[in-house]
Design brief:
mainly alpha, two-stranded antiparallel sheet, 4 helices, transmembrane, membrane, TIGR04086 family membrane protein, transmembrane helix
Length: 141
C-alpha cells in the first residue's frame, strides 16, 4: 500500500501492530487496576491517554528504525492507527462517538508518534574507512 512516496512496508505493519497491541495491553492493565481499586476512577482517562501515547511511541520506534523520513513515516503510522482505532471502536461498540475521549486519544496518538519521530532512528552506524594496503602505504605507520 502506498501514499505518495511513502509505502507501507513490513516494518510499518509491524509498527502498527506494536502500537495497537501495546495500547490495548496498557488499557487492560488500567482496567484491572481500576477494578482492584489501585487506580482511582478519575485517573482512568489519563491512564488511557498515556497508554495510547506509549503505544504510538513504541510503534513508531519499530516502524522508523533504519529509515529516513521519520516524521512522514510516523504521521502515516498515526493516521493508520487512527483509522484502526475507529474501526475497532465501531466493531466493538456498534456506534462510536468522538465526544467520548476522542480528542484526547487522537492527540495522545499523534504526540506519541511525533515524539518517536523526533527521537529518530536510534544510533547511526558509521561507515568504516577502507583499509589502504598498497605498496605506497607500507612502512608509513
Amino acid at each position: 500500500m502506498s501514499a505518495g512516496k511513502l509505502t507501507w512496508g513490513r516494518r510499518d505493519w509491524l509498527g502498527l501492530m506494536v502500537l495497537f497491541l501495546s495500547s490495548i495491553a496498557a488499557d487492560v492493565i488500567g482496567a484491572l487496576l481500576a477494578v482492584k481499586g489501585i487506580l482511582p476512577m478519575g485517573s482512568v482517562a489519563a491512564w488511557v491517554y498515556g497508554g495510547w501515547a506509549l503505544g504510538a511511541f513504541l510503534g513508531v520506534r519499530v516502524a522508523v528504525r533504519g529509515r529516513s523520513g521519520t516524521v512522514q513515516a510516523s504521521l502515516l503510522l498515526a493516521a493508520g492507527a487512527y483509522v484502526l482505532i475507529w474501526l475497532v471502536g465501531l466493531t466493538v461498540f456498534g456506534t462510536a462517538a468522538f465526544a467520548h475521549h476522542g480528542l484526547g486519544i487522537t492527540l495522545a496518538v499523534v504526540a506519541g508518534a511525533l515524539l518517536g519521530a523526533v527521537l529518530g532512528q536510534g544510533r547511526r552506524h558509521r561507515k568504516k574507512k577502507p583499509v589502504r594496503r598498497g605498496r605506497q602505504y607500507r612502512g608509513t605507520i
